Amino acid sequence: MTTESLTQSQPATSHRQVSPTRLKILQVAAGLFAARGFSGVGVNEIGEATGLGRGALYYHISSKEDLLYDITTAYMSDLIAEGQSILESESDPTLRTQKLSRALMMAISEHLSEMTVCFRELHALTDERRRAVMSLHSDYQAIWSRSLSDGMAKGTFRPIPSTVLKGLLGMYFYSFLWLDPRGPQNAADIGDAFAEVVLRAVRA
Amino acid sequence: MTTESLTQSQPATSHRQVSPTRLKILQVAAGLFAARGFSGVGVNEIGEATGLGRGALYYHISSKEDLLYDITTAYMSDLIAEGQSILESESDPTLRTQKLSRALMMAISEHLSEMTVCFRELHALTDERRRAVMSLHSDYQAIWSRSLSDGMAKGTFRPIPSTVLKGLLGMYFYSFLWLDPRGPQNAADIGDAFAEVVLRAVRA
């Protein structure tokens, strides 16, 4: 993981450390949990839907709660890794905001089931794991925060309260409720439109 | 209700039509559902927590699902009525945006339990009722949309895509996840800061 320096809590499983089979299990389980709720879906059913069967499934997962935890952390870990990479490779504050914006909207569009599960079932996780999920969200926010501070240091951006940054990120995250990945406007276009909102909000 | 002209679907119960006892039941039940999930809370417990007991409780509610529906619609109906009133009483586009912004953040701050329940348990409602909740959200968005159109007609605002309006409203709604009503920044202040984001986004 490239985010070690940011992550204060235990790092969550990243897609990069996950086998293709496990990744498929996460996707299938996220789809089932999103459609019918965590408590409404049994391990047998996940075994059938993945084509693995219950026995082989247990070779890849240890419990349904582990699966829930990995679903709620894997996409966030990837998002953090991607954000970190944009932070390091793009130094222009405006272009960087545009790249972060696009990457975030595309990740949300690709992970609607995972986000639905995360928002709806977060309380089903143990306290410790819930804190780990929240910590990943803070790590992601820290990337935007550093990017905005950098833009301030360069005189491009103005200072904004942390609640405004939380609000701006909420604009993206809340979209999982209305975003239609097959809709007329694709995620990249929405990302560009949202980047414009952020840039207008932070421009000096 | 002052929102009849906007509401295309059946109007939901408004607080104005609700007795103080029923209002208390809604608040207590929302708190219990938010803390432990809809399925984790029994009618007996709601009866005890309200001090009414199971028998008297059933005098005020017909079922737990009815309660869930009223929790998810009552605060939205109030928000629509308040938004409609601001739309009618304030004609200056900038001042109106500031008033809508403040009213929305204050409503969110006052109804964190209701919003938690709404986002987490929406799938527990029947299809028809879920559509009614979604319809209330559209009605509320229509108020902002009319306010922005009016500002455009006056030359104060620029046209924005509907996804940007959805994003801007998401900035507010998503805050129920991080807002601390006892935090250093109160809801009115955050509403003012968010109004500034909206105004920067829409200013011609």
Account of the protein in words:
Chain A has 204 residues and is an all-alpha fold. Chain A has a domain at 64-202: Tetracycline Repressor, domain 2, CATH 1.10.357. In chain A, 70% of the residues lie in helices and 0% in strands. In chain A, helix 1 (20-36) packs across helix 6. Chain A starts with 19 loop residues before the first helix and ends with a helix. Chain A binds chain B through residues 37, 39, 119-120, 123, 161, 163-164, 166-168, 170-175, 177-178, 185, 190, 193-194, 196-197, 200-201, 203, and chain B through 37, 39, 119-120, 123, 161, 163-164, 166-168, 170-175, 177-178, 185, 190, 193-194, 196-197, 200-201, 203. Chains A, B: This is TetR family transcriptional regulator. Chains A, B: Residues 19-79 form the HTH tetR-type domain. Chains A, B: InterPro entries: Homeodomain-like_sf, HTH-type_TetR-like_transc_reg, HTH_TetR, KstR2_TetR_C, Tet_transcr_reg_TetR-rel_C_sf.
Layout: helices, strands, pairs:
The structure is a homodimer of 204-residue chains.
Chain A: H1 20-36, H2 43-50, H3 53-60, H4 64-89, H5 93-110, H6 112-121, H7 127-153, H8 162-173, H9 187-202
